[in-house]
Each structure stands twice: as C-alpha cells, then as structure tokens.
Amino acid sequence: MYSALLALFALPALVIAGGGGQCNTGSLYCCEQTQDPKDAGPSTITLLKSVGVDVNDLTALIGLNCDPISVVDGSTCAQAACCTNNYFDGLVNIGCTNVIL
C-alpha cells in the first residue's frame, strides 16, 4: 500500500521535473484538447486577442479547458500538457507541449 501511495505522489513530480525530458518548463495541466495554433477556431482567436496574444506569433500548442493536475485528482485526463501561460482560469493556455503520464 505504501509503495502505491509513493508512486502516486512521485509521478507528478517526475513529469514536472522533466521525467524523460517531457516537461522542463511551465506547469502541468489536464486539458480537454490541445491544438496547433494554425488550427485555432474563431472563438479561440478572439480569446487570445483579448489578452493581447496574436495567434500568428504562437509556435507551441494551445491548450483548451485546462485544469492543473494535482496528485489527489484521480480523474482521467484527455490530454496532459505542460503549458507556460494560463488565461481565463485555464479556458485557454498557450506554450503547451503534450505530456504522456
């Protein structure tokens, strides 16, 4: 039992610390989806413009409907991502890289 608890608490720390080089910067989020900036729809572009971000300047993925991953969450995650910027309480995040947990 203790080893299971240890694994549960250690996994997010390994991912955040760059376990396998996957998440070296930013924070770890669980997103409904991530998308390439060139595939952003009108509503995503409008959200980004409202915070002063031009979608044409983005090179990393955009995360949509993201929540921070916590060790006690326990839910399944559609797409884990390491993102550098969070807007509108996770409605849209930028600078994301997909992470495999």
From TrEMBL:
GO molecular function, one term: structural constituent of cell wall
Localisation per UniProt entry: Secreted, Cell wall
One Gene Ontology cellular component annotation held by this UniProt entry: fungal-type cell wall
Pfam families: Hydrophobin
Top-rank lineage group of the source organism: Eukaryota
Record keywords, A-Z: Cell wall, Disulfide bond, Secreted, Signal
Broad class of where this protein is predominantly found: secreted
Listed transmembrane segments: none
Signal sequence residues: 1-17
Similarity annotation: Belongs to the fungal hydrophobin family.
Protein name: Hydrophobin
Source organism of the structure: Amanita thiersii Skay4041
